[in-house]
Write a structure and sequence with these properties.
Elements (H helix, E strand, L loop, with lengths): L1 H77 L2 H8 L5 H16 L4 E8 L4 E6 L6 E3 L6 H8 L10 E6 L11 E10 L10 E7 H10 L8 E4 L22 H8 L4 E8 L2 E8 L7 E7 H57 L1 H14 L6 H10 L9 E9 L2 H7 L2 H19 L5 E5 L4 E8 L12 H14 L4 E9 L5 H11 L3 H4 L4 E3 H8 L7 H12 L3 H14 L5 H26 L7 H5 L1 H4 L3 H41 L7 H8 L3 H12 L3 H19 L4 H7 L5 H12 L3 H18 L1
Parallel strand pairs: 14-15
Antiparallel strand pairs: 1-2, 1-6, 2-3, 4-5, 5-6, 7-10, 8-9, 9-10, 11-13, 11-14, 12-13
């Protein structure tokens, strides 16, 4: 009783002290709220300035990225072999021009930021354009709708190369349906700065201000209505919520303060359009632009005023809460102490109930070889934790591995997966304990180990268990837990000191699930025998595989690949590891060679090929990244082959069109000029045109002869010679065979038809 009374007095005294302490805190908070108001106002301004600087820095970074990307595009276009024909040649082949224009369109389509691309050739005074706004792509400078671009290239030395030039593209001359008169953009010029000539070839990349403005707006954490960018002349270089691009803001007083400060960054409070505001500015990049943000002063300080009210409210709440708490303490503190004592008793009970976790740790450490494995030490611990195993008797270890575990991870949480493994352990122990003592342990991830205590060693099947019992465990797990497990059974050990070795043995045996498949049963003794076999990597098959891959014969390459890997099933797991590693590096080198020889570019990560060594559950999973690479190689080679064929056929046609009048023109001379086999080009031309090269030569010559007969008074012998025929008799014979009439009759009939047409008209 004395102790209880003493406790009650202590409770009342503690409550009194708590009330006084609470009152003191509340009064102190109220007094400090007024003192700190001015202090927090200054801090708020600095925090707003710091936050705004970060936002403006992000905006500057986006602008710099725009400049870097535009510069990269311009350089890439400048160095493009196809585009260079537009840039430097005074007269180009239509096929080259078409190819180059397609390349320009491809460059423009790679980014939403690019509005248009111009290539200016000063020798021909011609603009080659890629722009969505106009269907015409070739313009003489005196006809070009973008007159400002014409003036820029005429005085290109006045502009810095690869620096953004804010401007408006005029569209009035195009008379567009959408009534768009002009478009805002940033123009980047790239030209030869080493040349001292006034006239230069120029690459022009126009970046859309609309797309750039959207991207910059997205970098501002709050409203962007008061954020804009000016150049060193106080001219807007992007549209703002009040003014259009290229508006002169020098008449604004706060702009004059920014320009006259001489600092790269800073802030000040000023009147902006009749509103007291915080003006923050910075010039962080090499573009020479200033990034300005305006925030109303009332918005910044509103939080401080609210904070003052909240402080007073909090002080009152603390006072009331303290008084209420002191009352409750004096009434219920004793009961709380008693409840805590009850909880401590409950915790002690729960700690005893957690012995299962301690048992799991003991056996897990034994399996991993991290704890004491001496039978005498373990005997006392097994008795303490009520584990029905005898350390001095024979042991066997069985490892269960959950199949398709990655799908299980995606489907269930960590807690749910733990419950599933507990269910598997309960099923296994219930079936095994009828034959011999066992203990199941969760080994993490997808593995469960079962320690078996057997009376005497058995040759293969663990502890004299029938093979049907292992299949019964697999069947029960599949039916009740809805998952499948693969099982590996170790050999037999003399006592507990062999447990760690047996666990390693069973775990290594499970690597062969790659070849056995899901829900397999593997005996470690059989796998151990494979380690004695010496594996020799089939380098000759690898060479055949690489040859087939280089030739694009993917079906045969895949077959040989499977054959090499499947041969390792009869050897140790390290043989499989060695073979796949060899194949990964061989395939990687072969693909690199194919890319280099065929001018093909796509990334190949060798780590993706080697991922099957650790991630694949079945050998088919390991095949997948390799076969994907094979298919990609095949597709790339086929595309490259078709492109080369088109180029060869186009060149044959061009040679015939240019040299049809030479009598020595033939399949052999064309092949010699192209440096290719006559048989090859003949077969390729017929495949793509359904016509032979000789027939095509005759067709071109005959078309020329018909034109000369119809439009000139030349003798037929001269026409035959100019058309490339070796002699007049052959020309007469060939002409009549193809046209059904002699050359003279063809000329006569053509003139009669012309006279009839004149009479009708």
């Amino acid at each position: 009783m004395l102790k209880i009374k003493t406790s009650n007095s202590n409770v009342k005294f503690s409550a009194s002290i708590f009330r006084s302490f609470t009152l003191t805190i509340a009064l102190t908070i109220v007094m400090l709220s007024g003192i700190l108001h001015v202090y927090f106002e200054d801090i708020s301004l600095k925090q707003t300035y710091s936050s705004t600087l970060n936002n403006l820095a992000q905006t500057s970074q986006e602008a710099s990225i725009m400049a870097v990307n535009a510069s990269t595009f311009a350089k890439q276009i400048y160095n493009d072999m196809n585009v260079s024909k537009l840039l430097y040649f005074s007269s180009g082949d239509p096929l080259d021009t078409s190819t180059a224009m397609a390349q320009l369109n491809s460059y423009r389509a790679t980014s939403l930021f690019i509005d248009s691309i111009y290539v200016y050739n000063y020798q021909t005074d011609t603009f080659y354009t890629s722009a969505e706004i106009s269907a015409n792509s070739v313009w003489k400078s005196n006809e070009f709708y973008d007159t400002t671009a014409v003036q820029m290239v005429k005085h290109v030395s006045d502009y810095k190369t690869l620096m953004p030039i804010p401007r408006k593209i005029p569209y009035e001359s195009l008379k567009l349906n959408n009534q768009e008169k002009e478009r805002d953009c940033y123009t980047f010029l790239l030209y030869d700065t080493l040349s001292h000539k006034d006239e230069k070839n120029v690459i022009i990349v126009n970046i859309s201000e609309t797309q750039m403005h959207k991207n910059i707006d997205g970098m501002i954490a709050t409203s962007d209505r008061n954020t804009f960018i000016i150049d060193d002349r106080a001219v807007l270089v992007t549209n703002s919520w009040k003014n259009a691009m290229l508006t002169d803001l020098t008449h604004k007083p706060y702009i004059q303060v920014v320009l006259g400060s001489g600092e790269n960054e800073g802030y000040f409070v000023s009147d902006v359009d009749g509103v007291k505001s915080l003006v923050t500015y910075t010039a962080p990049d090499v573009l020479g632009w200033r990034y300005i943000r305006i925030a109303p002063y009332s918005v910044i300080t509103s939080g401080i005023n609210h904070m003052r009210l909240y402080t007073i409210a909090i002080a009152v709440a603390i006072l009331l809460l303290g008084l209420l708490t002191s009352y409750l303490i004096s009434r219920k503190l004793s009961l709380n102490v008693n409840r805590k004592l009850i909880k401590l008793t409950t915790l002690e009970t729960e700690r005893r109930n957690h012995s299962m976790a301690l048992r799991q740790d003991l056996v897990r450490n034994l399996l991993l070889g991290s704890g004491s494995c001496h039978p005498q030490d373990l005997e006392a611990k097994f008795k303490l934790y009520e584990i029905r195993l005898e350390p001095k008797k024979y042991f066997s270890v069985t490892v269960l591995k959950i199949d398709a575990y990655r799908e299980l991870v995606e489907k269930y949480s960590v807690g749910d997966r733990s419950l599933l493994k507990i269910g598997i352990m309960n099923i296994a122990q219930e079936l095994l304990n009828a034959y011999c003592p066992s203990f199941a342990v969760d080994m993490g991830d997808d593995r469960i180990a079962i320690l078996l205590n057997i009376g005497e060693p058995a040759p293969v099947s663990g502890c004299n268990l029938l093979e049907s019992l292992w299949h019964q465990i697999q069947s029960s797990v599949r039916d009740y837990i809805k998952v499948s497990v693969s099982i590996a059974v170790s050999t037999t050990g003399d006592d507990a000191r062999s447990v760690s070795r047996l666990y390693t043995q069973a775990t290594e045996a499970l690597f062969h699930r790659l070849f056995y498949g899901h829900e397999c049963l593997i005996y470690a003794e059989q796998i151990e025998s494979l380690k004695a076999k010496s594996y020799v990597y089939p380098i000759s098959k690898e060479k055949v595989l690489i040859e087939e891959l280089m030739l694009g014969r993917i079906t045969e390459a895949s077959r040989i690949f499977r054959e090499i890997v499947e041969e390792t099933a009869g050897y140790s797991y390290m043989s499989y590891h060695l073979a796949v590693s060899h194949l990964a590096f061989a395939v990687n080198n072969a693909v690199s060679t194919i890319q280099k020889n065929n001018d093909i570019f796509w990334d190949l990560n060798i780590n993706a090929l080697l991922s099957g060594l650790n991630d694949a559950e079945l050998v088919e999973d390991m095949y997948r990244p390799f076969f994907n690479v094979f298919e990609r190689v095949s597709a790339s080679l086929e595309d490259k082959k078709n492109t080369r064929h088109d180029e060869v056929v186009g060149k044959i046609i061009a040679i015939v069109q240019q040299k049809y009048m030479f009598q020595e023109l033939s399949l052999d001379t064309i092949a010699e000029e192209m440096g290719l086999s006559a048989t090859y080009i003949g077969r390729l031309f017929k495949k793509h045109t359904l016509n032979t090269i000789l027939n095509y030569i005759i067709e071109v010559r005959m078309n020329k002869a018909r034109t000369l007969l119809h439009t000139t008074e030349l003798p037929i012998g001269d026409i035959a010679e100019q058309s490339g025929f070796s002699n007049s008799p052959y020309f007469y014979k060939a002409f009549k065979k193809i046209n059904g009439v002699t050359p003279a009759d063809f000329r006569k009939n053509g003139r009669l038809q012309d006279e009839e047409v004149r009479e009708i008209s």
